[in-house]
Specification:
The chain is mostly helical. The protein folds into 2 domains: 137 residues, Ankyrin repeat-containing domain (Serine Threonine Protein Phosphatase 5, Tetratricopeptide repeat); 63 residues, Alpha Horseshoe (Serine Threonine Protein Phosphatase 5, Tetratricopeptide repeat), CATH 1.25.40. It has 11 helices and no strands. The two termini are 22 Å apart.
Length: 204
């Protein structure tokens, strides 16, 4: 599955330049004179200022105080909203802030549910994983939900098996993940074996 990165180096205009420079005072001044810039959209990189606010709590709070649109997507193919971005980068505080402002935790993007997004990039997983996963599940996301219901059967457990995420897989199993669901004939166990995650495969 495609992995998402924020590439502010591709940006050289408008509010995104100020974000790249982490110049909050200049961003605030810009939004006073050009309030529409809070929802500026670009084709490449971080899509909207709010997408770029991941791991930048002061920026996130500023943008939301200026009525940043929490429902803007990155493009018409991926459908990644800021709440998905928060999960992809395991930014729990950003997610909580977005939820407090009305973000819908049940919407899918190209990667699936927020739970799928959380397991997308193992290099971004941190000590907040379990709390983030618990937040997602408590918001109504089903642990065995598919990436694209009606078209595939790839669950969060498949994602954890694919990435070799032992701790995440154990959490999912403890919370009712179904090991018998198969995507194109492949259970999570088989996916772990195919990818050489033999220790993980033993618990699936």
């Amino acid at each position: 599955m495609n992995k998402v990165v924020i590439d502010l180096e591709k940006v050289d205009t408008g509010i995104f330049t100020l974000i790249k420079d982490d110049n909050l005072s200049a961003i605030e001044s810009l939004l006073e004179t050009s309030p529409e810039a809070v929802n500026e959209w670009q084709m490449s990189g971080c899509a909207t200022p709010l997408h770029a606010a991941v791991n930048n709590p002061d920026l996130a709070k500023l943008l939301l105080s200026k009525s940043a649109d929490i429902d803007l997507i990155n493009n018409d193919h991926d459908f990644i909203k800021p709440i998905h971005q928060a999960a992809i980068f395991c930014d729990l505080d950003f997610a909580k802030l977005l939820i407090d402002h009305g973000a819908d935790t049940k919407e899918h993007c190209c990667h699936g549910t927020l739970l799928h997004c959380l397991l997308l990039n193992k290099e971004h997983l941190n000590e907040n994983f379990q709390k983030f996963a618990e937040l997602i599940l408590s918001s109504g996301v089903k642990i065995n939900e598919f990436v694209n219901p009606g078209h595939d059967q790839w669950t969060a457990l498949h994602q954890a098996a694919n990435e070799g995420l032992m701790g995440a897989a154990m959490f999912l199993l403890e919370n009712g993940a179904d090991t018998t669901i198969a995507q194109d004939g492949l259970t999570a166990k088989l996916i772990a074996e195919v990818n050489g995650h033999n220790e993980l495969a033993e618990i699936l």
